[in-house]
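Q: Predict the assembly, please.
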Amino acid sequence: MKAYRRVCNYATAAVKQEAQYQIPTASRTDKKNPADHDSHDLSKFYTIDAKTVSSIFYTGGLPKPFVEQTTVFAETALMVRNPALEIIHSLKSADYHKPARRYLLYGQTGSGKSLSLAHILHYAYSSKFILYHIPYVPIWLKYGRKEVNWSPTKNGLADVPLIAAQWLKHFKHQNGALLDELNLTTSQDYIWSIRETTPKGTTLNEFISHGINRAKFACDCMDYLLNELKAHCSNNKCKMLVAIDGFNAFFNEKTDLKTEDRVKVTPQQVSMVQTGLSAVLSDWNNGAIVMVTSPRAALNTRRESHLPIYLIGRQGFEHIDPFIPVLVPELSTIEFNNMLDYYEEKRWLQKPGGRKELEFLTSKLPADLMLRCASL
Amino acid sequence: MMSITRLFASLVTKKLNILKLTSNYVPRCTYGLNNVGSNDPGIEIEEKKIVEEKTSLAMRAYLQRATLYNNFMEQQTHEFQVGKRHLANMMGVDPETFTQKDINEAIEYLFPSGLYDPKARPFMKPPSEVFPPKKDAEFDESGRPFHVFFYTGKPNFYLILHNIATKLSELNKFEDSLRKNNILPDDNKKLSSIGSQWLSKEDVEKLTVEKLSDYEYKHFTIAIERLLKHPCSYKYVEFIAQYQKPMITTKAIMESSPVEYTKDGKAYVTVKDCPRKSARADVTVFYPGTGKLSINGKGIEFFDDIQAREQILFPLLFTDMVEKVDIEATVRGGGISGKAGAIRFGISWSLRSFVEPETVERMRIAGLLQKDYRRRERKKPGQARARRKFTWKKR
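A: Predicted assembly structure:
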């Protein structure tokens, strides 16, 4: 074996294969700022620099498989697609004196709704919107045991304090710098307990820090924060984007949550859900609301259709009506080919050809395609 | 031959068949010394006594066996007939028109059986089907075998091999004579084995009434194959055809389903109830199309796993029709792989109408046009699954 290694410089008998074809390069756009994107950039990739990614999506917001892929590719490249571009365009041209507009992204599982939302979030972040961003609602209501307590302030509602504190951290991570810059303050006194109060005129950053440190009050803090922000927006002090991924989980029949006295909690009984629902009410202006409904956020017995009316039900529909529905379709042929070019460029897909097969097998759903190409 | 029957009329019953493969040898006179060289039956009365004395031990033993067998069969047939009439009366049907099918139904009704294997269930069949046939006498009363190949042990089988070899040498001679006259054997007349197959080992065993080993059967197929491949084999088409049987399924496969047309002139073929495991699919293939697929109103997303999706893709890829047809399928019953397999079969079955015959042949060889009759194997008591045993633990 040693002798063999010496002869051919390889530990195994496999001979290094020469690249027999020109590795294609994906078409990319140079415009780093999503505000500059227009129809010429459609179906092209743009890269978000690592600093921005960590400041927006460090504590959630990008789907986990995609994050894994970005670590492999050593860059976060998003494809400029029509649904996100439409909403960005609409956000740019909106009249902010009028009540906040509501957009609803919907589409099949794996069609790229969350990444479209990420694109919009990037736009909002770079245009100095305050992001009231809920990365994925089922994280609140599902997965593992969580501490659930009955709310001391709101009758009949349950708090999930640690999750709320976590979310506040997320909010602070995304918006801390901007809040400092805008110098927003509380408009009233908040009395948490006999000894703890937050006086009027405290900066919102401090207000949030209190919520994080005293997790018991995190849920209330979330709610008050929303009210403060709504008021500030309406007073034209700032702009806000409410972004909720997995919105339809608010209207599911049940959650995995149980209080200490073993009462099963429905989503509507969770105070954070009520806050989220109040966030999508457009009783404020100088901002916008983007929601994403996803079959995956629904209970696994109710995933037959991806249409919003099926997922959020009549009640949810009435709650957010009127809204602008935006379908996130599967990839178009150009997008599909560019995506595969990108994968071949990154050597994620190591063999050329077979594109028609891939198209058939994945029905051009990007998430499916990524998974399918992994082993090829 | 006839005389033997006449001679032993008292012993051998009518039912005993005379050996069928008699064409190749001359019946010899078998009446003893007085009769040598004479074929005249006129003097046979005199010889009867002598003949009986000269009957060999083997012949006597055979006759005894044959009588026993025939008596037994007669008894069985009688019992079957009586039983059949009885059964017909029990079922309240006219015994004269009571067929085997009615018998089967009656037995199934009167003796319902929960046994899994059909062979283990009660039945009532004519004795000729139940008891294996026996060979007839192979030698005369003096113990001399009729058959030239008697001492090979399997005379009928070796006779076939012998015939094949004879024919082959004749063909060789024929070909030589052709070539001497500068004539080449006609290529167009050459035989091919497409669409037919050789008799199976069981068939040959039935034909020869002899038990064959795999080795012997292999020899037979090699010999007949060699005869078939001879350039002049067309001379003995009939002889070869004796040992061939048509592949019935092939014909059915090659005949494509009738094509219908939609109002806007699109051709389509519908195949109903395509089976796989316990799934059934109705598949409609439209041609020309653009590669649309709908399974119970959904796309390929109907199937989550890649294996099932590839099942659907395979016939389309194989015939290069991925983007040339539209497919509509409704599928019910069964699980995931059953559903996928049922649709796959439906697609391949209807694609026959839209592709070249050569492609259909290729599809057949690839197994796309073969119905999959496999079913789930039952779980056995005392075992974990169908085959899997419980972990064996000494104590």
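Chain A touches chain B at residues 108, 356-357, 360-363, 365, 372 (CB under 8 Å). Residues 161-182 of chain A form the longest helix (22 residues).
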